[in-house]
Amino acid sequence: MPSEADLFRALDDEPPTPSTVSVQRAIATGRRHRARRNAGYAGAAALTAVAVAGVSVAGNLVAGPPGQPAATGPTPSKTVPSKAGPSEAPAKPAYTIPGTPGWNAPPASPPSRCTIEKLPVPRNVRMALISGADPTGRYLVGRSYPPGGGYQAVIWADGKGREVPLPGDSEELLTDANSAGVAVGWSYTEKGQLPYVYRDGKVSKLPGVKEGQAIAINEAGAIVGDSGGPGGGRVLVWPSPTAKPIKLPLPAGAQSASAGDIDEDGTVVGMLDYETPYVWFADGTHRELPVPDIDGKPAETASVIGVRNGWAIGTATNGMGRKGEGAEGGKMVSVRWNIRTGEVQELAGRVRSLDAVNAQGWVIGTGAEGHAVLAAGGTTVKLPALAAHQPDGLSNIANALSDDGRTIAGQSDDASGTIRAVIWRCQ
Prior knowledge:
The protein is mainly beta. Helices cover about 5% and strands about 40% of the residues. A hairpin with a 5-residue loop joins β12 and β13.
């Protein structure tokens, strides 16, 4: 699988023996890789070269029941009705994706402040990061960087870390977990990148692929990921950790697809040919998502980085190339889709790039001044850092957000510039 095609290949330029300076550069490079695959933007380093519109959360972003429009939402600077045509699925769907029909968001009120603390890492390793979490925030997943070099997958339960022995001696990462403590991820072996699941203390390769990665898992145990190969990547869904994968269909003209996330009802979001946002519904129907206009012109590229309770978040670009790789004078906007209606909104406000969305529709990302922030209801909360650094979108990164908004996890540089795995407790 190409390095640009995984969720958190963000650190593929890191040296075998981690150095803090190189890792910082690696994160910037990795956000460019993540952008190509998921977000369509060139990473934090490129933000100085583009005009950016962010997110303003002006209400409680709770979606309605399946098949209904969201009840309330952020204040958009522009709303575009769905232009998507009819689903391209056959009359009799060839597959269904496991989910929890009628799942609803738990009640929650927006937090107003957060505190930060370092997470303990197995073997007292200092350098580590969080890449995902279960919806409750109890289970956190990521990796550490042992002093001798390399990578080590880690899962935290109630704040206590445990190393997960993914096969291979190269790069590895756990990317997501559900509230049963089942985690998914990938590692590189002599056979290339392979997808794995961790449950009941055991690691198993996901069946049915010679090369690929696992990206996300829902509460029903369905796992989404993608595959590689000479013919281009395809989005895969494993209905369970032991089931063979379903290869989700491509519409006419598309050459490849990459996965973004899976919702509780089985809805999958992703990207076609690194430039077009797409949704596959649990019943086998699927369609392209519309893109917003940027300065009066339809966005050239757009993609989805996450979905939760019917809300999807991502970015759209113009003037940054067909793959959103960055160009002088280009522009990027943060966007939100109502998956149920196909409506897309260009969001305006104090969050310039998005990293995650929860069941309330609240988001975490990088604020206009380069700090990590939580935008919930009408409130934007700046997330404290371990140490004072130049706010550049790299020294303090939030990657996971619980459904109640009380737990946020990610990474923060300490006073020495070393990346530390951290958790923010909000109230």
